[in-house]
């Protein structure tokens, strides 16, 4: 790549050897010729052939960069590693399972173009979920509880496709699972967020890394922590005189 990218696409992956190739090619099809971009795939110490598959793809896709966690550290840490390494001022994220549609990234970019500068996060909103009935039911109740406690005015914080300003993200407090609370955290920092309807697809390969129980157990503690952060935050304008 000769030009500095305008957009960094960050994709955390763990044991997704059959999904990384098709997903990367979809990213290329959606963005090449439209915007200067880089694709930063972060392998969270996969135990299958994910890392080898990504390394082989570098010969095919010059925009690809591959990061590897020496120890498995979770999705939030993988996203943060990718954002810290990103060379563009704006970052789009995708889940590594292929359920997010890279063709929606241009839609988020168009929303950013039409938005005011105060909006720093454009969050995907899965209006037609392609998950199991139990997962949709659990997500519905989790979103309702979160919305009531955090008042983040976001219908779907669990959607992996998002577009945000890199500096704004790196200014947020970091903790494990923070990626599930980005709208509330951005709003806490004084920025505005909007939700954009996006496509959602069934997983075509591999297995989910989460179940409803472990999401719930972790989510309760995290939700209480984020609510505490919001109550303890203070913001003010700063003037140099």
UniProtKB/TrEMBL annotation:
Q: One GO molecular function term?
A: glycosyltransferase activity
| Pfam families for the chain | Glycos_transf_2 (PF00535)
Q: Domain of life, per the record?
A: Bacteria
Keyword Transport part of the UniProt annotation? no
- Annotated Glycosyltransferase 2-like domain ranges read 8-169
Q: Which Gene3D superfamilies match?
A: Spore Coat Polysaccharide Biosynthesis Protein SpsA, Chain A
What keywords were assigned to this record?
A: Cell membrane, Glycosyltransferase, Lipopolysaccharide biosynthesis, Membrane, Transferase, Transmembrane, Transmembrane helix
Protein name (database record): Dolichol-phosphate mannosyltransferase
Q: What is the lineage of its organism?
A: Bacteria, Pseudomonadati, Pseudomonadota, Gammaproteobacteria, Lysobacterales
């Amino acid at each position: 790549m000769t030009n500095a990218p305008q957009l960094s696409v960050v994709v955390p992956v763990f044991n997704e050897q059959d999904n990384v190739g098709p997903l990367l090619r979809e990213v290329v099809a959606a963005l090449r010729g439209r915007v200067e971009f880089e694709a930063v795939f972060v392998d969270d110490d996969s135990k299958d052939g994910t890392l080898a598959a990504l390394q082989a793809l570098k010969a095919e896709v010059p925009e690809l960069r591959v990061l590897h966690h020496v120890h498995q550290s979770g999705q939030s840490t993988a996203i943060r590693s990718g954002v810290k390494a990103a060379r563009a001022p704006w970052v789009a994220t995708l889940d590594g399972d292929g359920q997010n549609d890279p063709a929606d990234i241009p839609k988020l970019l168009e929303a950013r173009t039409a938005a005011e500068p105060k909006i720093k996060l454009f969050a995907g909103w899965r209006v037609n979920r392609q998950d199991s009935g139990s997962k949709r039911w659990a997500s519905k109740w989790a979103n309702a509880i979160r919305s009531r406690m955090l008042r983040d005015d976001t219908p779907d914080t669990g959607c992996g496709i998002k577009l945000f300003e890199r500096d704004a993200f790196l200014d947020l407090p970091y903790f494990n699972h923070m990626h599930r609370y980005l709208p509330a955290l951005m709003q806490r920092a004084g920025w505005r967020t909007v939700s954009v309807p996006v496509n959602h697809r069934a997983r075509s390969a591999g297995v989910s890394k989460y179940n409803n129980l472990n999401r719930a157990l972790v989510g309760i503690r995290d939700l209480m922590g984020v609510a505490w952060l919001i109550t303890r935050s203070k913001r003010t304008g700063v003037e140099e005189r």
